[in-house]
Structure formats: C-alpha cells, structure tokens
C-alpha cells in the first residue's frame, strides 16, 4: 500500500496552489469591495449569516459537538495512527503539514486579532455548545485548518487513477471537510469566513506538507521500524490524553479515537517486537 501511495501521491509542482490562492484573493477582493478590511466591518458583514447558520446547525448539538472535536489534532490523528505501519508516507507528510499549519495559524491569528462571536455578541443571542470561547483569535479557524490539511494529504495519498473516481473522491472529501469545519459556526466559536479561510489555508498547508516531504524527505525515518518506540511512546501518551478527555466530557468521538489508537498501539508494538 505504501508503494502505491508513493507512486501516485501527487504530481510535482506548485500549480496546485493556484486555485486556493485565487480563492483567497477573491475573498480579499470581496472584503475590500465591502469595505470590510477592518475588524468591526469584518464581523458586521457576517453577522446575519453567523446567526442563521448557528441557529440551523445547532439543532443537532450532540452531533455537532462530537464532530467539531475532529478539528483537534489529538482526536483526529489517532484515526490515522494505523498508517504509521502500513502507509508511513502519509505520516511523513502529516508531520510537515502540521508544522506548516501551526506556523500559519499562529501567524495569522496574531496578525488579524479578530474577536470571536462570544466576545462581540450577547451570549444569549446565539447558541454556544461546549466551552465559551471569547478570545481575539477568531481568524482563521484552527480546527478547519487541521481538518483540511489532513484531508488534503489523504485526498492525494489515496487518489484513484480514473478521472471519474478522482472527481467523486475529491468532492466527497471536500464536502466532508466542510461539514466538519462548519461545526465551528454551529458551536458558536467562529464566523463563516473564519471557517472558509481556515479551510483554504489548511488545504495549502497539506499541499505544502506533501511537496516539502517530496523535496527534502526529512521524515524518512518514519519508515524505519527501529524508530517504532517513538510512536509507541507517542501513542501511549495519546491514550492517556484521550482517557482524560473522556473523564472530563465523555463524548463518543473520544471513545472511537481511543479504540483506534489502542488498536494501532497493539499493531505497532507487535510489529516492532516481531522484527
């Protein structure tokens, strides 16, 4: 499987960045046209859409709150932990993409300093699911970035060879990503544009992660079994973190993530001992 991923992973070149950069340019032009390149106007032009989407999506609070946890890398990545053994190429790119995503996220949040909905609107005027987030770090949505950076790597990593199936595969992952990303509006944590911009930057992060790994191959050690104890330690720590999350919030998504991680820990430990 890893050989297949290596062979069809992604065509080289930066041309795949053209579309997301074009979309970001369109958003910038829209904000400029609406005279919304300042904090007050940025929030103001989204107010109606935020309240509308928040009211509609929050009708399924349990579902939304479980899905939104997938924007947390500590919950999402355990679902991909088995790939360390069977498709290490995926994890090599995930490492690079995670670093790029973290850099972009911290940079843009400090640059824009947009207040979250709970810091602007009356908290009784919209639905808040879970912890109330009222900081000034709304743009971009970090959860959306994590989701799309990960899905981008999976999209190119397991891209079908036939064009018809490629289209279905890409559209399915994009829709899935948007459904999960917009849970951030449902729980009252972000404005719609925070999510859209975060998703685009997440795609860019995932793509750069793949391209960086292709060019420099800095994570080649992931493919070497002698380094499995590193992952055994990381998975063990992850299990402890997930158990703590279950104790605090007891969400089904945490159980699913935990089961997956425990299974992967068993497989990677068995594979290492068997060598």
Task: Furnish the topology, listing elements before pairings.
Layout: H1 2-8, H2 18-33, H3 39-44, H4 47-57, H5 61-68, H6 73-76, H7 83-86, H8 88-112, H9 117-120, H10 142-157, H11 163-181, H12 183-186, H13 192-216, H14 228-249, H15 252-274
Provide structural commentary.
This is PAP2 superfamily protein. Residues 93-210 form the Phosphatidic acid phosphatase type 2/haloperoxidase domain. It contains 15 helices and no strands. The mean pLDDT is 94. The protein has one domain. The protein is an all-alpha fold. Helices cover 71% and strands 0% of the residues. It is globular and about 60 Å long.
Key features of this structure:
275 residues, mainly alpha, 15 helices, globular
**Number of DSSP E strands:** 0
**Low-confidence parts, pLDDT < 50 over ≥5 residues?**
none
Helical proportion, percent range: over 70%
Tell me the distance between the termini.
19 Å
Oligomer: single chain
Number of domains: 1
Derived structural class: mainly alpha
Order of helices and strands: HHHHHHHHHHHHHHH
Count every helix, treating DSSP H or I runs of 4 or more residues as helices: 15
Radius of gyration: 19 Å
* Rounded average pLDDT: 94
What fraction of the residues are assigned to beta strands by DSSP? under 5%
Q: Give the overall form.
A: globular
Reported for the largest beta sheet, the result is: none
């Amino acid at each position: 499987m890893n050989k297949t991923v290596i062979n069809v992973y992604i065509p080289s070149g930066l041309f795949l960045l053209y579309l997301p950069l074009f979309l970001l340019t369109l958003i910038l032009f829209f904000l400029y046209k609406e005279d919304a390149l300042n904090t007050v106007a940025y929030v103001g032009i989204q107010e109606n859409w935020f309240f509308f989407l928040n009211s509609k999506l929050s009708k399924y609070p349990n579902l939304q709150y479980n899905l939104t946890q997938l924007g947390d890398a500590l919950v999402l990545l355990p679902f991909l932990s088995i790939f360390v053994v069977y498709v290490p190429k995926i994890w090599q790119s995930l490492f690079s993409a995670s670093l790029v995503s973290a850099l972009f996220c911290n940079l843009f949040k400090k640059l824009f300093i947009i207040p979250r909905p709970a810091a602007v609107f009356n908290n009784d005027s919209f639905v808040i699911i879970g912890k109330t987030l009222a900081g000034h770090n709304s743009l971009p949505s970090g959860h959306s970035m994590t989701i799309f950076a990960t899905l981008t790597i999976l999209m190119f990593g397991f891209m079908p060879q036939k064009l018809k199936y490629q289209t279905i595969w890409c559209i399915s992952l994009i829709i899935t990503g948007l459904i999960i990303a917009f849970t951030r509006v449902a729980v009252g944590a972000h404005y719609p544009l925070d999510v859209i911009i975060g998703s685009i930057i997440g795609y860019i992060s995932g793509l750069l992660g793949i391209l960086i790994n292709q060019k420099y191959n800095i994570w080649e050690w992931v493919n070497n079994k002698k380094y499995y104890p590193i992952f055994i330690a990381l998975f063990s720590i992850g299990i402890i973190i997930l158990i703590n999350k279950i104790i605090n919030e007891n969400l089904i998504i945490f159980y699913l993530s935990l089961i997956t991680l425990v299974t992967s820990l068993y497989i990677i430990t068995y594979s290492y001992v068997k060598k």
